[in-house]
Amino acid sequence: MAEIVRLISLTTGKVVRAVKNDLNVSKGDICLIESDLGGDLAEVIDIGSEACQHQRFSSGAVKIIRIATEEDKKRLAWLKEKEKYAFEFCLERIKAHGLPMKLVAVRYFFEEKKAIFYYTADGRIDFRQLVKDLARELKIRIEMRQIGVRDEAKLVGGLGVCGRIICCFDFMKTFEPVTIQKARRQQIVINPTKISGLCGRLMCCLAFEEESAGRLYSEEEEYLIED
């Protein structure tokens, strides 16, 4: 089985599992790893523990490309500055064009001259002039990507009512359907302010806890029947 190490992303702060391959990495090393944006830098925080090697974690592991060079570290810092400027410039152009959209985040690709601008909106937006403005100013390829409110929370992150980092930002890969019936089956008081997440939708943990709650109620019912 491939050896798995755990790292923490210098971009998002998320814990990532990656295949070490034949690289000789140590705790504290900064590595260039695979990501949806062509690469990310992450610090090795765990090697060889049970949490690393558990079989159920290996399927979602990315690959370590190489130990990060000083050039890689400088590039990441440069990209963060570019993203900050691009975000502020895009906000100004959205306001100038009067577009009914909310800019959520800007993400640059690590080794490509391309950036994704994530936004939310109630409907379709004609942002052709906005894209022209961005391409002219930033000199890169532009992709405008509309996302929903749950995706916004997953992208931006934050703390839930439990005091922990919200699940979608921390470890969730995909969203599960969450209905009010799941809250009722767990005998939770239906108070929207108590069972809604930062996105304004029902909290994802209602789906996680339903299975264990269902087992508990089944055991209670069985006990009552026996009595």
State the CATH topology of the largest domain: GMP Synthetase, Chain A, domain 3
The proportion of residues in beta strands is 15-25%
Shape: flat
Biggest sheet, strands in spatial order? Answer: 1-2-5-3-4
SSE string: EEEEHHEHEEHEHHHHH
Q: Specify the CATH class of the largest domain.
A: Alpha Beta
Total count of strands: 8
Query: What's the CATH architecture name of the largest domain?
Result: 2-Layer Sandwich
Q: Radius of gyration, Cα only, in angstroms?
A: 22 Å
Total domain units: 3
Mean pLDDT: 81
Q: Helix fraction?
A: 40-55%
Instruction: Compute the number of helices.
Output: 9
Low-confidence stretches: 216-227
What does this molecule look like?
- With 227 residues, the protein is of the alpha+beta class.
- The protein folds into three domains: 4-68, no CATH class; 75-147, GMP Synthetase, Chain A, domain 3, CATH 3.30.300; 175-226, no CATH class.
- It is built from nine helices and eight strands.
- The protein has a five-stranded mixed β-barrel.
- Strand 6 (102-108) and strand 7 form a beta hairpin.
- The radius of gyration is 22 Å and the shape is flat.
Outline of this structure?
By secondary structure, the chain is α+β, with helices and mostly antiparallel strands. Helices cover 40% and strands 22% of the residues. It has helices at 50-53, 55-58, 70-97, 128-138, 149-156, 167-170, 180-185, 192-195, 205-226, and strands spanning 4-9, 15-19, 30-33, 40-47, 62-67, 102-108, 114-120, 141-146.
Features:
single chain, 227 residues, alpha+beta, GMP Synthetase, Chain A, domain 3, 3 domains, five-stranded mixed β-barrel, three-stranded mixed sheet, 9 helices, 8 strands, 22% strand, flat, disordered C terminus
